[in-house]
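Dear all,

This email documents one entry for the complex benchmark we are building for the journal club exercise. For each entry we list the sequence lines for every component of the assembly. Then comes the predicted three-dimensional structure of the complex as a token string, followed by one or two observations. Please use this as the template for your own entries, and keep the labels exactly as they appear.
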Amino acid sequence: MGFWTLDNVQLAEFRPGIKSKVEIGNDLIMACMEIGPGQEDAGHEHDFDQCGLVLDGQMEMFIGQEQKKLGPGDAYFIPAGQRHGYKTLDQPAKVLDVSLKAPRS
Amino acid sequence: MGFWTLDNVQLAEFRPGIKSKVEIGNDLIMACMEIGPGQEDAGHEHDFDQCGLVLDGQMEMFIGQEQKKLGPGDAYFIPAGQRHGYKTLDQPAKVLDVSLKAPRS
């Protein structure tokens, strides 16, 4: 499907605490994710860029040495190889996230 | 820079009628674009995926045979090779757009 209306997109459980809807193309993965309260990714890295935008709620995110509390309208760009992670607070956060389907050789 | 606040991001003229701020990584190009009223891309295609989200304003977009008037919170995913184009109306439209930096071989 080419178009999503994010206010009423149907999300399915991706893993405990995270619901998502994903579009997978040749190159890109676009995911709308609703991350429940109190979820945390303490940090990881990968060999491809990732970016996105917070749509609703708030989350703390770090990219390398930078750390920010993100709310609606805050975008992020995670360069390939940079360690990054996030933490949601007492409310869910909804994001639109885009990453490469697979690392390029 | 890892984080952008899209409400007050500084945009520069990209070409007449379009202002933008762009982040270019190894793989992805993330662009915040403000497209002026009455702008049109009648259609083109490329060998990589492109996706994004309308942040403010409205625009008409087509992807292959699908056509939609998009407003804030409407996302799009343009599969590699699909013809697509857009038209802004009497107000500017602001989008966050992500595409591959260069086609993969």
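Observations: The first strand of chain B starts at residue 3 and ends at 5. Chain B touches chain A through 40 residues (CB under 8 Å).
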